[in-house]
Amino acid sequence: MRGSGSKGSVIPVLANPRGRQPVLVEGDLPADLKVANKPGELEGVRNDSGIVFLKYRPYVICVMTTYLANERAGEEAITRISSLAYDVFDRLGRASDLGRVISPGNGGAR
Prior knowledge:
The N and C termini lie far apart (33 Å). The protein has helices at 10-15, 71-93, and strands spanning 35-42, 45-52, 59-65. The protein is α+β, with helices and mostly antiparallel strands.
């Protein structure tokens, strides 16, 4: 979004969804991690887009599914893709410029 009037307005909108929303992007992420997202659904379609405020490597994620015979499977796929993206960005955020992870055990933060 462009323009000075719109700069700070997106995150509060994403962080406070209206009504009961499915937990997709933030489903398997650490509970204390701030996520501002907007899931959406139609018959046979599930999607979620958001900002994940990872300490050293915040990122934007958008996952869309369509032609779903099983909508729950689409939701689970979004959660799994989000979890895999988190693992990559968490590792990148803990790595040096040479790719060496600088943390105990080289494991994930979860």
